[in-house]
Write a structure and sequence with these properties.
The chain has a seven-stranded parallel beta sheet with strand order 1-12-11-10-9-8-6. It has a three-stranded mixed beta sheet with strand order 3-4-7. A two-stranded parallel sheet has the order 2-5. It has twelve helices and twelve strands. By secondary structure, it is an alpha/beta fold. Bound molecules: zinc ion (ZN).
């Protein structure tokens, strides 16, 4: 039997939050906390209304680099740029656990199927739904920052960031996350030796008991064969805005792989609701390659840039495919 579940990659439009400059947000963080809460609740409401099986907090706090660079020790942020100023060590307190808890509480109040530590099996069987934690990956965090001190190579910074992120991942696991997603957009642009990126991701994934999703976007021609060897449970890739990735996957996929593929099938760059037949076609083409009974579909990343109404229209296509099958 085929089971289809839906998820979201991360950032979601948060129109009720008026983004201010990063420095302003730091200095007024207490006063603005309510705005963030409202944005999380609004995102979760939209996800639950669209019947999304694995949701997140909407990543409403903005920039995926600064969320972590502002809390992990060894970074400083100046004029919107992250600098590595010294030895990187874990954040003093969990970075995203409170937002995770608010997302879960909100979701549970709307749909009783949301459970802490929901197993992937129960989610595929549509018995449970879950909330995942999202981390910006070590390669992406390092290559988005300027090293000004301590590290003579990026490689060692990447491993120390992985150690700091593992602490956060374990906090999210303990809080009841159903999965940890690691976002690594910088892997596809060849910013780093892929073996270093792989080792860093696996420093996190191998220490967790819950499933790990690795999200990599962009054209994957040069990295797909390596990515398929990463020790993660699910590779989340974009296929709608980057249809070349279907051919690349076909070229490198082996039937012996036990990982699943998150099928990015909504074009987030398109300022209109996707044509359902196109979405179905993308899902079917990937399914023909991976031949999974359990299918995971989601939008390509970058939903933050879309109008609220458009996002809901797009998510509703996932809802229909989830209900009707492919
Ligand atoms: Zn992405």
């Amino acid at each position: 039997m085929m089971n289809i579940i839906t998820t979201v990659v991360g950032s979601y439009p948060s129109n009720c939050f008026e983004a201010k400059s990063f420095n302003e947000r730091i200095s007024k963080s207490l006063g603005l906390f309510d705005s963030y809460k409202k944005a999380i609740i609004a995102s979760v409401n939209a996800f639950v209304r669209s019947d999304i099986d694995i949701i997140c907090d909407g990543q409403v706090r903005g920039d995926m680099v600064k969320i972590f660079a502002s809390k992990i020790n060894g970074f400083r942020i100046d004029d919107n740029t992250a600098y590595i100023k010294g030895k990187i060590t874990p954040a003093a307190h969990p970075i995203s656990v409170r937002d995770f808890q608010l997302a879960f509480k909100t979701a549970k109040s709307l749909d009783k199927r949301f459970k802490l530590n929901a197993s992937l099996e129960d989610i595929f069987n549509h018995e449970s739904k879950g909330v995942k934690g999202i981390l910006t990956g070590p390669t992406t965090l390092t290559h988005s920052s300027l090293i000004e001190n301590f590290y003579s190579s990026r490689e060692n910074a990447i491993y120390d960031i992985a150690k700091a992120l593992l602490v956060e991942a374990k906090e999210l696991e303990k809080a009841g996350a159903c999965a940890i997603q690691i976002d690594e957009p910088f892997i596809s642009i060849g910013a780093e030796d892929i073996n270093v990126s792989k080792a860093a991701v696996e420093m996190i994934s191998e220490e967790l008991d819950i499933p790990v999703i690795l999200h990599v976007c962009g054209d994957l021609e040069n990295v797909m064969s390596n990515l398929l060897d990463f020790e993660v449970d699910i590779l989340d890739l974009e296929f709608s805005g980057m249809p070349e990735n279907i051919g690349t996957l076909k070229k490198h996929w082996k039937s012996s792989y036990d990982k699943n593929i998150g099928i990015g099938c909504l074009n987030t760059k398109m300022k209109a609701v996707d044509n359902k037949d196109d979405v179905l076609e993308t899902v079917r083409e990937v399914q023909k390659i991976i031949k999974r009974d359990n299918i995971i579909i989601d939008p390509d990343c970058g939903m933050r840039m879309l109008e609220d109404e458009l996002s809901i229209g797009k998510l509703n296509i996932l809802k229909e495919i989830r209900a009707e099958g492919i």
